[in-house]
Amino acid sequence: MPSHRRTLLKVIILGDSGVGKTSLMNQYPLNLAIWDTAGQERFQSLGVAFYRGADCCVLVYDVNSLKSFDNLNNWREEFLIQASPSDPENFPFVVLGNKVDVDGGNSRVVSEKKARAWCASKGNIPYFETSAKEGVNVEEAFQCIAKNAQKSEEEEEIYLPDTIDVGSSSQPRSTGCEC
């Protein structure tokens, strides 16, 4: 059975301006198509073309900014509306709490516990605390992102059989993180 697969995975990285999205992206030199809003968050609705076809969505906030954390809901909802994934309940997201290095952690306002609780409430989204500046947990986070994006892409794989059996049903899918 021949299959047609894309060789490039599309990862969308979203979050408020200044949370470190570009810095995180630049720390991880893997061959992913990572689409960064490049500080244009003021255009909240970035358009369907930006989001469509994504294999994973990374939500980034600054652990020193409650507002950037509170806005994760908006970014997640905006992505689901614009991308219209076929199975929104199981679409792979990863959350990164960035800038853990700032001020030796003394200016932190969002606890790891609070962030993990939010991720659990959204279907057990994988969570990593990172420092793009110092490279803390960036490799591990992007390994998980790449794994989830690849898993998502494989589940969307299109098979072109020689004959079509209209009586077969599709198997249930799971996109749980095993990172």
UniProtKB/TrEMBL annotation:
Name the membrane topology term.
Lipid-anchor
What are the alphabetically sorted keywords of the record? GTP-binding, Lipoprotein, Methylation, Nucleotide-binding, Prenylation, Protein transport, Transport
List the Pfam families. Answer: Ras
Listed GO biological process terms: protein transport
What Gene3D superfamilies does the entry give? P-loop containing nucleotide triphosphate hydrolases
Keyword set includes GTP-binding? yes
Q: Which domain of life is it from?
A: Eukaryota
**Cellular compartment(s):** Endomembrane system
Q: Which residues form a coiled coil?
A: none
Key word rRNA-binding present: no
Q: Which family does it belong to?
A: Belongs to the small GTPase superfamily. Rab family.
Q: What is this protein called?
A: Uncharacterized protein
